[in-house]
Amino acid sequence: MLPDFLQNITISSATVPAELEGATARGVLWQAAPGRFLLDIPDVARYLVEGGERVTIEPSAEASPDVVNRFARMTPLAALLYQRGLLAFHAAAVANEQGALLLAGDSGCGKSTLLMELLQRGWTLLADELAVVAFDGKGGLHVSQSSLDSALWPDTLKKFGNKTENVIYADANRHLVSYPDHRISSPQPLRTLFRLGVESKSAVTAENKTVAQHFKIISSLLYNSHVADALLDRCVYLNYASTLIMKTAVVNLYRPRGSWSVSEVADSLENHLL
Description:
Blueprint: E1 10-13, E2 25-27, E3 30-33, E4 36-41, E5 45-50, E6 54-59, H1 65-72, H2 75-83, E7 87-90, E8 92-96, E9 99-105, H3 111-120, E10 124-127, E11 130-135, E12 141-144, E13 149-152, H4 154-159, E14 167-170, E15 175-178, E16 188-199, E17 205-208, H5 211-220, H6 225-231, H7 234-247, E18 249-256, H8 262-273
Parallel strand pairs: 1-6, 9-16, 16-18
Antiparallel strand pairs: 2-3, 3-4, 4-5, 5-6, 7-11, 8-9, 8-10, 11-12, 12-16, 13-15, 14-15, 17-18
Helix pairs in contact: 3-8
């Protein structure tokens, strides 16, 4: 259910309260108190995350284990990471022999399609939608593998050969595709954060932003930023953000609006790394 580097976490199935005693912050479907986080997803499960060490799940009778596990690796996992002083980015992540890349962007920007293209080119999957970033002990940052599967739109899967033998879960909207041969044992050094976007231009463009703009981009990419504000120590976050800006390139990569070629976007990304 959780990434390999979190296998020491205690996960249990038990009754979870509907209200979190002593809650100091609330949002849509969630509550937070010092050292505790509660998420209640109707018809799926209640998740209680405590101290960065324990996760208690009360599944709904109507929900399948696949759905319950899928949601556990979203906001509950982010909450667990924040409690442990780690960063969770709403981004995909891939790696090669030179290090890791984060791929972030708004819905519809082509992130899933670009991710599939890079995997076809030999990159290794580290994360689908939630990328885990931590200090590497040498003054830099690394990305731990948090997923061996990717949730894809049916048209994206069809575009890349519709390899249904790798589909482990599907509904009307998304297909969950597994990549078991992508398992790696060690975190990968973070090299570049690409923020994907769309512009009314005829060609793919890439640009770096100012340091002040980088801070804004980084804060906007935290997984469920409201939960991060409630759980993540501000000094810890600023330390991460400043290290990322000093040690990692932050690049805005824009594709043309309307008709576009994913291979051209991937070419631009890889050329930017040269």
